[in-house]
Amino acid sequence: MPTITSIVGFExxxxxxxxxxxxRVGLDxxxxxxxxxxxxxxxxxxxxxxxxxxxxxxxxxxGVQEVVSSVNGEIAKVICGMNVFDQTGIDHTLIxxxxxxxxxxxxxxxxxxxxxxxxxxxxxxxxxxxYRYLGGLHPIILPCPMxxxxxGGAHADNSLDFQEFMVRPHAAxxxxxxxxxxxxxxxxxxxxxxxKGLVVSVGDEGGFAxxxxxxxxxxxxxxxxxxxxxxxxxxxISIGLDCAASELYDAKEKKYIEKKRRERKEEFKTRTAExxxxxxxxxxxxYPIDSIEDGLGENDWEGWQxxxxxxxxxxxxxxxxxxVTNQKFLERGIKEESANAILIKLNQxxxxxxxxxxxxxxxxxxxxxxxxxxxxxxxxxFIADLTVALGCGQIKTGAPCRxxxxxxxxxxxxxxxxxxTNSFYLDTNKERLYNQxxx
Length: 439
Ligand code: PGA
Ligand code: ZN
Description:
Elements (H helix, E strand, L loop, with lengths): L3 E10 L5 E9 L4 E5 L28 H15 L7 H12 L9 H19 L3 H6 L4 E3 L1 E8 L12 E5 L6 H21 L19 H14 L9 E5 L6 E2 L4 E3 L1 H5 L6 E2 L1 H14 L2 E5 L7 H11 L4 E4 L7 H10 L4 E4 L1 H4 L2 H13 L3 E5 L9 H9 L3 E3 L6 H16 L4 E5 L4 E4 L4
Parallel strand pairs: 4-16, 5-15, 7-11, 11-12, 12-13, 13-14, 14-15
Antiparallel strand pairs: 1-2, 2-3, 5-6, 6-7, 8-9, 9-10, 16-17
Helix pairs in contact: 1-2, 1-3, 2-3, 5-6, 8-9, 10-12, 13-14
The structure holds 2-phosphoglycolic acid and zinc ion.
2-phosphoglycolic acid binds next to loops.
């Protein structure tokens, strides 16, 4: 059994130019592997803690030198000597070593970087691709990509309050085809925006970030782009939203507020939870929206229940900030029927083992799972392999623009092409699997 002989952390940069950590795990068989940790902007309050130095003289306080020291010191001390295939044992050792419920002592970034690098080194030791090492030998499912082609909220300096407007090319026959459809819509949207004199600069996740009058205008433009690109809205390509409503909630007023419009001194709306639900129902009745993430805030459990009652039978209701990839919150959500799908982000919980357990729990409840990047990413494409390994069937990793986003899509293209006869693409709307050799 290969044994871990070294663990070294490095302070590197993420896609927003903020420091993050990459970890190298070395083994006694000469193999070594890296993994890097992403970082969110609209983070849920119950997420595992991303530790930063707070020293304002370096990187405006965002440095991770202490996190690197913990990896090189405390973590290396207990993990070196362990069997690299003992992922669960290693992850539990890290959780115990940290000793806090939210990984705030060592930092979820220190723990996750180590956890993921261990998995990579283990896969390499077996001579296996990461998705095979994590997922086993069964035929694999390529996910429906959810491409965030219009950015707003915390990810863009524009007027849009909803964070993400995504296209879901669910009716494609292969991942490659789905991605191509999404890319064609993306470029068509660019031409449409340009023609209308709107800016085509992009937000943190690579989607365009124009100043628009309303969410409806954003949706109209996307429909126009889908149609002009030659696809049927709703039938072939549907729309997904991430409202990131925790960012819009004002605890004092107990209302969802179009905060960006308010800040920009534009006309803005405020909505109670009931009004927000009615608004989302209104949008679903007008547009082919089949997935809504974080339509309400992270503490509005009552509202989520109502939202799922109202829309859960017809569309996917995805909890991100509400569940933070944490089994404890997911358990409550299953019991209260708060949603019917969960967003999966490795760094919200901080170890590979816990992430896999959360996915398995969601699946046992009949829920869907969507693996997700963060708005601050690196070139590491671990989540592409993870999606395939766990057969999640859906991934959101931004627009087809900016290398930290395309790295994940590109990895999936290669996996699908390599596994031609053995891979299937999931039409999430019909729950139908397509094999590319027959497509
Ligand atoms: P974040 O956004 O990475 O900035 O948290 C992604 C999301 O909300 O899904
Ligand atoms: Zn989200």
